[in-house]
Amino acid sequence: MTSFPKLAQFKSPAALQDRLRQLNLDLPLDKEVLTSAASPLAAPYMLGNRVIGNRWCIQPMEGWDAHPDGTPSELVFRRWQNFGRSGAKLIWGGEAAAVQPAGRANPRQLLATPAHLSGLRRLRLELLAAHEQAGHSPDDSYVGLQLTHSGRFSRPNSTQLEPKIACRHPILDAKFGIDSANDRLIWKDAELEQLVVDYVLAAQTADAAGFDFVDIKACHGYCLHEFLGARRRPGDYGGDLAGRCRLLLKIIDNVKAAAPRLGLGVRLSLFDLIPFEAGPGSGQPVPHAQLLPYEWGFGVNPDNPLEYDLTEPLRLINWLMERQVSLVNLSAGSAYYNPHILRPASYPPSDGYLPPEDPLVGVARQITATRICKERFPQLLCVGSGYSYLQEYLPHVAQGVVRAGWADFVGLGRMVLSYPTLPQDVLGGGNLVRKQICRTFSDCTTAARLHIESGCYPLDPFYKNLPQAERVAAARPRDATV
């Protein structure tokens, strides 16, 4: 087994910089974290005629604790209140809300149908109220709702997978026990027409609830992301790039026509790589020599699917901009089949594998890909992902990235589950509360795999004291000490 030094071993920015040089990684790493008066992270951003007050973004995550009918529970309200208290000014949806009951990733995911208007409105209002109570003006906040269908990874009624797939996948069908003879699992074109309608209804619901924008989610192996790689699908919604992007672009066109006030964003897996599996000691790519050139991913080098190729993603982003999509949130891979690509971490979730590379490599991969996108489209608001692994040095890199223009906003996901006020603390003086810093134990993902409530069980006292914490701790790798 290959082991890599943990972030805690680096006692200064200079020590981390030495490690980055050893790995031949280029990341902007500022020596000192500046306060709000001078920090690039405190600079406002003009999006059209809207001012967004700083460069922190709260990422959308996947909740497991709404009510079974898809309305927000008190745990969901608590999480969104924490997002408001964070001090971040761009709230990218808080968490994913499904546009159809059949498209939920779990039986307790939020829904965004017209019947859920009042709960969604209250979520937004409570987030902004908590933001104001923490001393932040809501006037320069920009709050969105992420709209999703989980597609291949739908589990709307129980822990049992109930997939709807864009096309056959020779690796994922086998990995998740999908019956290759059951054509009913493949989306029919007529069903996709109804899906477009449901996205529009969800967007109109978000509009009525007062959200500033909606995110049409196209990442992490879910429905719209899978269609982007559906080269083997016949008909209008597969084949060449125009066909594979048709569903996403049609949804955007229809949402724009039906809810012209709403801003439009897309969270996009800018690249995907081959699925991985547990190997001796660490993760390894699924054997795939017989599948070359690889035709089942988006942003993948078909001749070497361990490398990304941004040719098609950059073409898609150009088409998004032509449709007045004004902000993109750039991610990568999928937690279901290559989690180290999506969320670089020291420790795997319960269904994962030990990292096959120094997680700093994964951080740099995402930051570099976002830099390429930002350089190509300088007028587009770009949010970067993959920062939580940096821990104490997250503010140093975040500040350097924004200062250098590699991204406009730095996105925080699992970090704000353990440490919701990190953005506020960074801008207020840079003194972090060490005991709240996410150490990437992946317990937030393990909790979802165990089908229990979403939260940070090692570090948030609220979750740490729940009985469910014992189940999460029992599933933790033995060397992941808190």
Q: If you had to describe this structure to a student in words, what would you say it looks like?
A:
The protein is an alpha/beta fold and 482 residues long. The chain is 34% helix and 12% strand. The chain has helices spanning 13-22, 74-85, 117-133, 172-175, 189-208, 223-228, 241-258, 311-322, 339-342, 359-376, 394-404, 414-418, 422-428, 443-449, 461-464, 468-475; strands spanning 45-47, 50-52, 56-58, 90-91, 96-98, 110-111, 142-148, 213-216, 263-271, 276-278, 283-285, 327-332, 381-384, 409-412. A hairpin with a 4-residue loop joins strand 10 (276-278) and strand 11 (283-285). Helix 2 runs parallel beside helix 3 (117-133), helix 5 packs parallel to helix 7 and helix 7 packs parallel to helix 8 (311-322). It is globular and about 55 Å long.
